[in-house]
Amino acid sequence: MDGAALTGRGKDVSYSRAGILTLILGSFVPSGAVYGEAITTKEANAARLSAKWRAASGVTTTGPDGKVIFLYGTSQPSIVCSPLQVCDIELQAGEIVRDVLVGDTVRWKIEAATSGGAGGQAIHLVIKPSEPSITTSMVVTTSRRTYHIQLKSHPTHYMARVGFAYQEDRSASLADANARLEAGAGSVPAERLDFTYSINGRARWKPTRVYSDGQKTYIQFPKSIASQDAPVLFVVSGGQNRVVNYRMKSGVMIVDFDVERAVLVSGVGWRQEKVTIRRGG
Q1: What's the rounded Cα separation, in Å, for the pair 88 and 163?
Q2: Where is 114: in which H helix or E strand?
Q3: H or E stretch including 212?
Q4: Domain range for residue 73?
Q5: Which residues pair with 234 in a beta bridge?
Q6: C-alpha to C-alpha distances, 23 to 5, 17, 35, nearest whole angstrom
Q7: pLDDT category, 242, cuts 50, 70, 90?
Q8: 270, burial (CB in 10 Å: exposed 0-12, middle 13-18, buried 19+)
């Protein structure tokens, strides 16, 4: 027999020469080299936090031109593209791209284009996968922020136009809106006010009450809230979230139409806070 016999604990165990060589060499090979280096508990917790942020649903809506709009920072946008089609990612006007980093540079092609006039140009990233059913990640650094994006390819489905909504834009529109005169709700008879709104969610700025006079909707916040800390308002219409403008007056968010369902969002990642509002409970 081509082998050797070893005795252990009263039993003869036969090994081939190849088996003995494997045992000897195995004692010199670090386990991490075969199975991958183990990570610490702290590293595992950090990885779970990152995965939680990447998997968060975030807030997505559509623009009037068919553009899919992600609220920047609330989650990692997942953009679906298709071979022989192009996905157009439009960045904020005036934003300058510093670098574009892609995990799979072989099967994903990224090209840059611009639109708009001087002083207000917007950069577009045109995404083209070479084959379906592949996934990679992309990091885009700009003069204003950093985008972390997941790219997926599908045989037929794709997002033709993609863009972002930014909370700082909402703050600027608030300043403009607050400059306009607002007729207070005090002149509306009490019997015309509708207080049948439910408020669900946990947030430090959670509204104390919501009511409507049939033409405008009023969302009242705690006295401690400041205009710059007010959340982004999305109105739910036709199963989609639509960003809408409002103005703040004495801690009350005023929307210039009658709201049935809405979502308030503040913060990004694991710090994000969200409250839903619905008429009729």
Answers
A1: 8
A2: strand 108-115
A3: strand 209-212
A4: 58-165
A5: 243, 263
A6: 14, 10, 17
A7: confident
A8: exposed
> Which single residue is written with the structure tokens 């985008």?
147
Structure tokens at 130: 């070479």
Helical H runs in 3-101?
17-26, 31-35, 41-55
pLDDT given at position 9? 45
Residues 6+ apart with CB under 8 A from 194: 211, 212, 213, 214, 279
Tokens of 212: 């409507």
Among all chains, which residue has been given the structure tokens 């577009």?
124
Among 165, 196, 212, give the residue marking a domain's end: 165
How many domains is the chain partitioned into structurally? 2
pTM: 0.56
117 and 182 in a single domain? The answer is: no
CA-to-CA separations, 268 to 53, 57, 76, 147, 249, in angstroms, rounded: 9, 12, 10, 13, 25
Q: Which pairing describes strands 87-90 and 97-102: parallel, antiparallel, or unpaired?
A: unpaired
Cα–Cα distance between 8 and 221 in angstroms, integer? 77
Residue-wise pLDDT tens digits, 24-70: 444 444 444 444 578 999 999 999 988 887 887 777 888 878 899 99
Give me the percent of the chain exceeding a pLDDT of 70: 75
**Total residues belonging to the chain:** 281
Q: Do 156 and 194 belong together in one domain? A: no
Q: Does residue 207 register a pLDDT over 90?
A: yes
β-sheet bridge partners, residue 273:
266
pLDDT at 29: 43
* Average confidence score pLDDT of the chain: 81
The 3-state DSSP class for residue 187 equals helix
